[in-house]
TrEMBL record:
Superkingdom as given in the UniProt entry: Eukaryota
Name by which UniProt lists this protein: 3-hydroxyisobutyrate dehydrogenase, mitochondrial
Enzyme Commission no: 1.1.1.31
Entry similarity comment: Belongs to the HIBADH-related family. 3-hydroxyisobutyrate dehydrogenase subfamily.
Organism, as annotated: Myotis myotis
Length: 163
C-alpha cells in the first residue's frame, strides 16, 4: 500500500515487489498508511471476534478444530479463522501453534489502532469497534502480552473472566 507521486511509484514498483506480492498504489502521500491502518483495524476487530467465538464455543463444549471447520465453511469465515486461527492446536505454522511467538506483535497492533483512533478523531469518523479493539490491545500490552503475536488475544480472553 503506497502513497506518493504516481510516476515515482511506477519507478519503484519492481523494488517494492521484493517486499510483498501485492503492491498497490493508493494515491497521494499518506494514502498508503491510511489503507494500512484501516486494514489493520479490521484485522484486529476480526481477530478479537474470532477469539471470542472460539473461546465461547470451547466453553460450551465444542471441539476447537470442529468449531473452526464449521466457522470456515459458514458466514463467520474470515482470515483470522481460516488462515491464522488464534487457538493453539487448531492449525500448524501459525503463532498460536508456537506460544504466540513470531507474527505481528501486539505492541504493533496497539500502535496501528492508536493511529486509526487518531485519524478517526481528526476526521470525525465513528469507529466504535476500532476504539474497543484499541483498548483491548492496550490492556494486553499492560498485562504482559506486548511481545506476543496479536492473535494472543485468545489467550488473553481465556485468562480474563471478569469481562
Amino acid at each position: 500500500m503506497v502513497g506518493g507521486v504516481e510516476e515515482e511509484f511506477a519507478a519503484a514498483k519492481e523494488l517494492l515487489g521484493c517486499m510483498g506480492s501485492n503492491v498497490v498504489y493508493c494515491g497521494a502521500v499518506g494514502t498508503g498508511q491510511a489503507a494500512k491502518i484501516c486494514n489493520n483495524m479490521l484485522l484486529a476487530i476480526s481477530m478479537i471476534g474470532t477469539a471470542e467465538a472460539m473461546n465461547l464455543g470451547i466453553r460450551l463444549g465444542l471441539d476447537p478444530k470442529l468449531l473452526a471447520k464449521i466457522l470456515n465453511m459458514s458466514s463467520g469465515r474470515c482470515w483470522s479463522s481460516d488462515t491464522y486461527n488464534p487457538v493453539p492446536g487448531v492449525m500448524d505454522g501459525v503463532p498460536s501453534a508456537n506460544n504466540y511467538q513470531g507474527g505481528f506483535g501486539t505492541t504493533l497492533m496497539a500502535k496501528d489502532l492508536g493511529l486509526a483512533q487518531d485519524s478517526a478523531t481528526n476526521t470525525k469518523s465513528p469507529i466504535f469497534l476500532g476504539s474497543q479493539a484499541h483498548q483491548i490491545y492496550r490492556m494486553m500490552c499492560a498485562k504482559g502480552y506486548s511481545k506476543k503475536d496479536f492473535s494472543s488475544v485468545f489467550q488473553f480472553l481465556r485468562e480474563e473472566e471478569t469481562f
